[in-house]
Amino acid sequence: MLPAHVTLVEVGPRDGLQNEPQPVATADKIELVRLLEHAGLRHIEVTSFVSPKWMPQMADACDVLAGVRAPGVRDARVRHSALVPNLKGLEAALAGPRESWPDEIVVFTAASESFCRRNTNCSIEESLERFEPVVARARAEGLGVRGSISCALGCPYEGEVSPDAVGRVAAGLKALGADHCGVADTIGVGTALRAQAAMEAALRHFDLDAVSGHFHDTCGQALVNIYACLQMGVHTFDASVAGLGGCPYARGATGNVATEEVLYLLRGLGIDTGVDLDRLLDAASFISGQLGRSVPSRAGRALLSAR
Ligand code: HMG
Ligand code: MG
């Protein structure tokens, strides 16, 4: 039995644009979010409050968040989330008026020690300790807290990652008080059975409503991995418009699975998402145009050429 409804969490404005070598104008980031909302996406990761020394592409986080939540712009049906690595990031996310705070923060660690260190300069255990006051403050302020486990299927430095490692980190996130656990194949090396095994490990600590899959398409397996998780009843998936993305600390990883390709799959399966494919293609065309390229995803190219 496949789920009747799937929630797509759009991560292009954050996970996608963090990987672009050229600067992207703040106004273009805000316009991208507007177009995604217009397409019906109701959960969007808009930016990250990380160190600008580590991730200069996200240095305009405050302005992006304020822009998408400005009076007259903000769509109250949409949940905006922002990545936060430490208390300094949370304080920056909460520096403006309450209306411009994110609805939810995302704390991120990894199932592989080497990646955790390269990405956040600390061990997995230290990352969880660092999140303790972050999660406590976010919860006290009434914000949602998603936890994300990078390199849950494979690591660029350590190779294959075991489901047990995923389970241990999921247990840590649960103990912290995260209300959601994202299982991320950051470098896109996983295949269907391994995706299911990693998800099962997360499901030992979180309910089905509280897990999501985040797949990169490096080896062309992302849609198959999503289908494998759908078969388990998982009904929340991250995706990135126009397949934007990657992580500078994950050598060799290509983009996230393209939202339009996931939507094409789900539509074909008769699964409701509330997202309009044609309007989503407008968002894909817009951001690809601003980046000086055509829409790279196969579904995007095919559907746009048939317009
Ligand atoms: P660090 O260098 O160990 O931290 O970095 P630090 O405390 O020594 O700070 C260094 C400098 O950064 C200091 O500035 C701090 O003030 C500043 P200085 O005193 O030298 O002028 N700083 C900050 N500035 C703004 N906001 C902050 C902040 N924190 C420190 N929050 C740290 C540790 C965690 C900060 C750093 O490693 C970092 O920011 N890492 C983030 C890297 C990143 O953004 N990676 C991509 C996101 S994860 C991802 O893409 C994977 C995921 O999408 C899943 C998937 O795709 O599969 C989630
Ligand atoms: Mg990603």
What is the β-strand count? 10
Helix content range of the residues, please? Answer: 40-55%
Q: Give the C-alpha Rg.
A: 18 Å
H/E element order: EHHEHEHEHHEEEHEHEHEHHH
Neighbour order of strands in the largest sheet:
1-10-9-8-5-4-3-2
Small molecules bound in the structure, each named once: 3-hydroxy-3-methylglutaryl-coenzyme A, magnesium ion
Instruction: Name the shape in a single word.
Output: globular
Domain count: the total is: 1
Structure report:
- With 307 residues, the chain is an alpha/beta fold.
- The chain is 41% helix and 16% strand.
- It has twelve helices and ten strands.
- Helix 3 links the parallel strand 2 (43-48) and strand 3.
- The chain starts with 6 loop residues before the first strand and ends with a helix.
Features:
single chain, about 300 residues, alpha/beta, TIM Barrel, eight-stranded parallel β-sheet, two-stranded antiparallel ribbon, about 40% helix, globular, binds 3-hydroxy-3-methylglutaryl-coenzyme A, binds magnesium ion
Outline the secondary-structure elements:
Elements (H helix, E strand, L loop, with lengths): L6 E4 L1 H5 L9 H13 L4 E6 L12 H8 L10 E5 L3 H7 L10 E7 L2 H8 L3 H17 L3 E7 L3 E2 L3 E2 L2 H14 L3 E6 L6 H12 L7 E5 L6 H9 L5 E4 L19 H10 L8 H14 L7 H8 L2
Parallel strand pairs: 1-10, 2-3, 3-4, 4-5, 5-8, 8-9, 9-10
Antiparallel strand pairs: 6-7
Helix pairs in contact: 2-3, 2-11, 6-7, 7-8, 8-9, 10-11
The structure holds 3-hydroxy-3-methylglutaryl-coenzyme A and magnesium ion.
